[in-house]
Design brief:
Strand order of the largest sheet: 8-9-7-6-12-13-14
GO molecular function: phosphorelay response regulator activity; protein-glutamate methylesterase activity; protein-glutamine glutaminase activity
Helix content: 25-40%
Shape: elongated
Number of strands: 14
Number of domains: 2
Order of helices and strands: EHEHEHEHEHHEHEHEEEEHEHEHEH
CATH class of the largest domain: Alpha Beta
Largest sheet: 7 strands, parallel
EC number: 3.1.1.61, 3.5.1.44
Pfam families: CheB_methylest, Response_reg
Protein name: Protein-glutamate methylesterase/protein-glutamine glutaminase
CATH superfamily of the largest domain: Methylesterase CheB, C-terminal domain
Family: Belongs to the CheB family.
Distance between the termini: 53 Å
Length: about 350
């Protein structure tokens, strides 16, 4: 018999520790080997118990979850699933945790904690199982990059009210590990990039914080998509958590449409929904990439796009946290290219602009 996945639960709430332990112990192939109420106790239990996966709260006494995770991924990297409350602070710290190497996040319900976490049991169990096989890397501190000065240093940029209609589209889908993979792609896209539409599997409430973070860190204007948003060059639109994002035509323009339709492949937003809408509204005037993620969402949509002549890209296994979604897309023949994440932006641009 296969060895069970050994889990250490870290949370300052005794009730949450108890509920998470009960949920995971009841799941086949998972064993909770211990629990800790703060990072100092967790550190000793990691040494003693050698767990396979850690669940980690964001805000805890004595040491916050972010500091603990940074030290852990630098000294003893291991799969971590964040269990985070939905607050402005919690969402921002959780995104920082994903940047530091946490594999995924499960939202901690704000009200009726016992009932709420029980409803999340299936999602939590799936993510623990996925995390056990995820690739984690030792956190290194990169050197400070040289300042990148632009014309803004001499002539401040002013807002421009009129934009040329965008007739090309870039579509991106991702799940587990996708927040960092998406950042890697967006960082390499120039400010005049055709409009970008993105479906990332992310809990409701975290998508706005993720969009704000990408807006600060990349050279594009990034926002959480709103129904009716005109898709413009130099802009990226991220699907809100719990809403499907679709690309639609409004005359000669592309616009964002949001849908509360049924989850597809158990996801809302769904990458397949986004990709199919791009196929129907933009056809061969698009390029598309499927990035790291668990499951198969997006594989069918990428194949539909390739069949229309769209330049399609799948992230390679070596740079994916989980090679589920891109691997399935490759298996179905949906990818024209299979590339490391650092090369995907250039491929997407070649697909829509030829440069």
């Amino acid at each position: 018999m296969a060895k069970p996945i050994r889990v250490l639960v870290v949370d300052d709430s005794a009730l949450v520790r108890q509920i998470l332990t009960e949920i995971l112990d009841a799941a086949s192939g998972i064993e909770v080997v211990g629990a800790a109420q703060d990072p100092y106790i967790a550190r000793e239990k990691i040494k003693a118990l050698n767990p396979d996966v850690l669940t980690l709260d964001v805000e805890m006494p004595r040491m916050d979850g972010l500091t603990f995770l940074r030290n852990l991924m630098r000294l003893r990297p291991m799969p971590v699933v964040m269990v985070s409350s939905l607050t402005a602070r919690g969402a921002e710290v959780t995104l920082q945790a994903l940047e530091l190497g946490a594999v995924d996040v499960v939202r901690k319900p704000d009200l009726d904690l016992t009932r709420g976490l029980q409803e999340y049991a299936g999602e939590l169990i799936d993510k623990i199982r996925m995390a056990a096989g995820a690739r984690v890397r030792t956190l290194t501190t990169p050197p400070d990059p040289p300042p990148r000065l632009s014309v803004d240093a001499v002539i401040p940029q002013r807002s421009v009210q009129s934009f040329r209609t965008t007739d090309r589209i870039i579509a991106i889908g991702a799940s587990t590990g996708g927040t960092e993979a998406i950042k890697e792609v967006l960082l390499r896209l120039p400010p005049d990039t055709p409009g970008v539409v993105i479906a990332q599997h992310i809990p409701p409430g975290f998508s706005a914080a993720f969009a704000e973070r990408m807006n600060r860190q990349t050279g594009l204007v990034v926002k959480e998509a709103a129904d009716g948003d005109r898709v413009m060059a130099g802009h990226a639109y991220i699907a809100p958590g719990d809403r499907h994002l679709l690309l639609a035509r409004d005359g000669a323009r592309y616009v964002c449409r949001l849908s509360s339709g049924e989850p597809v492949n158990r996801h809302r937003p769904s990458v397949d929904v986004l990709f199919r809408s791009v196929a129907q509204s933009a056809g061969a005037n698009a390029s598309a990439a499927i990035l790291t993620g668990m499951g198969a969402d997006g594989a069918q949509g990428l194949k539909e796009l390739r069949d229309l002549g769209v330049h399609t890209v799948a992230q390679d296994e070596a740079t994916s946290v989980v090679w589920g979604m891109p691997g399935e897309a490759v298996k179905r023949g949906g990818a024209v290219e299979i590339l490391p994440v650092q090369e995907i932006a250039a491929a997407l641009l070649r697909g829509v602009t030829g440069r």
